[in-house]
Amino acid sequence: GNVPLRDAWSSADGGFTWEELEQPPWPARHGFSALVVQDKIVVCGGTGEGGRKLNDTWVMTGSMWRARGERPTTRKTSKLMSSEDAAAAQPVHWNLAECSPWAAREMAQLMPFRGEVVLFGGLGDSGEVLEDAWISPDGHTWRCLPAAAWRTVSGRYGHQIAIVEGQQVILGGAGAGQVCFGEVHIARPLLLALDGFDAAAAAEDTGVATYLDKLLRTEFHHLVVVTTGQPGLDHLKSMHLQNWKFAVFRASEFGDREIRELCRRKLGGVDAPRASAIEEAMLDPQYRELARTPFLATVLLQQLLQQRGGIPSRTQVYQR
User: Fold this and answer.
1) What is the maximum alpha-carbon separation in the chain?
2) pTM for the model
3) Mind listing the pLDDT tens digit for each residue in 78-126?
4) Burial 3-24 (b: 16+ CB within 10 A, else e)
5) How far is Cα 221 from Cα 232, in angstroms, rounded to an integer?
6) What confidence tens digit (pLDDT) does each residue in 169-188 have?
7) CA-to-CA distance for 316 and 305, rounded, in angstroms?
8) Torsion-angle region of residue 113: left (phi > 0), alpha (psi -120 to 50) or beta?
9) Distance between CA 150 and CA 34 in Å, rounded?
10) Angle at 261 between CA 255 and CA 263, to 5 degrees
11) How does strand 223-226 pair with strand 9-10?
């Protein structure tokens, strides 16, 4: 039992029939983690020959993975690429990521997260349950995630991951003392509001549009609101908005009259002196720039309503 293997199999009919593929170059192993992300296969860790725990990472690129014994001249593509890209398919190539910083482990899990790959949990060399979590954009460079945010779900091994409408679900596994978990964790959606996206959209080196593209293509349950002027909107529409399936709402810039009307509608249940102070703050020059659209003005008004002990400064509003 527990004999490490390094064979690979492919099915073209949903698992009814299987075909063995060319052996990958990585060492035989069991209890490893694997994930398909951005048309690449990432393989991490596991237990190799002699029961030795591994901490290597292998990344597969290309889509033309030959069957075992198949002649090199045969052109056959895997399911990783669409038929439209078949003509440009490249042979499969495995790259070893040198010196993965995380400890050797087995029975961990890989999970797509925010457009990147997260490795978390598992059993270490001495059989200890590992509670760390690591994130990588490409399988080659890794950084450790905050323990306080991940310890609840990472301190386990043998757990499973499901993706439901782009949302990550973590199921079961076991913890210290081989205590089995019957719990289910689901990732919370993000609510992102990005104001003045014109500059970020035009400057490709900012990385903001690239990050959003990775995020929204894989985790489309998040709620994202972007405000921009017409030049930025035209650029975003051609570059990203259609792929992100955004709806476009056009709003005229808020003037003093519109701000006063918004305050009258939203502050009806607030005592008169406080309502008057909030309305005047909304019209103050330090806030006027922040309240130039209906969405931003509403967010600012909510921030002022939540504030206790007077009207906050512009810096305090940004920090909130």
Assistant:
1) 84
2) 0.66
3) 555 555 555 456 888 999 987 789 999 999 999 988 888 999 999 999 9
4) ebeeebeeeeeeeeeeeebbeb
5) 24
6) 999 999 988 889 888 888 87
7) 13
8) beta
9) 20
10) 105
11) unpaired
